[in-house]
Design goal:
By secondary structure, this protein is an alpha+beta fold. It has four helices and two strands; from the N terminus they run ααααββ. The radius of gyration is 16 Å and the shape is elongated.
Length: 80
């Protein structure tokens, strides 16, 4: 991973922005924890933007707000 992060700083590669702006700023210990967390979930479900918003809307939430993070994840909030 350290080698890939190094290359991303010098040439354009897939997920380069994430590698240099997020993972590359972590200490090696924190990198291991993040990788373990991302690769070892017991259950994972991924939603598109409209699906995430529909979950809250269909459950009766109002004033739904959504925040996009690093081009790959969503934070969705609403009032019940």
């Amino acid at each position: 991973l350290a080698g890939y992060i190094f290359l991303c700083r010098h040439i354009t590669l897939p997920t380069g922005g994430y590698m240099t702006e997020v993972i590359g700023k972590f200490s090696p210990d924190k990198r291991r924890l993040v990788i373990y967390d991302q690769l070892n979930p017991a259950y994972a479900k991924y939603y598109r933007k409209h699906e995430a918003m529909a979950l809250l809307r269909d459950a009766g939430f109002k004033n739904i707000r959504i925040h996009h993070r690093h081009g790959y994840s969503w934070t969705v909030m609403g009032e019940k």
